[in-house]
Design a protein that fits this description.
By secondary structure, the chain is mostly beta strands. It has strands at 2-6, 10-12, 17-24, 27-38, 45-50, 56-58, 66-71, 76-81, 90-102, 105-112, 116-121. Helices cover 0% and strands 62% of the residues.
Amino acid sequence: VQLQASGGDLVQAGGSLRLSCLASGRIFSVNDMGWYRQAPGKQRELVATITSGGNTAYADSVKGRFTISRDNAKNTVYLQMNSLKPEDIAVYYCNLKGRVVAGTVLEAFDRWGRGTLVTVSS
């Protein structure tokens, strides 16, 4: 399974970006999908998650500004980011958990995307 994240860019404070993360491979099912971020000099932190049933959870710092969504048919997770602030500057990583077809069995996977950089100018 490979993940390809995209959408990171330089944007002015108050602006918006939409991140996408597409999973490819012999995917049988995708369960939890999530976005994490790592700012310079800081540890990676959870931004938002969404379950296969559509339940979402957000870090307090992004509630009301960010929205996570998923397209199960495309094995894709999105992060709509509005009202961006300089403190949102980070490399954003997607994470997907699910099962892949491995011969005649299903195997669990837990994959990270390579990251996409979001920069917000003040």
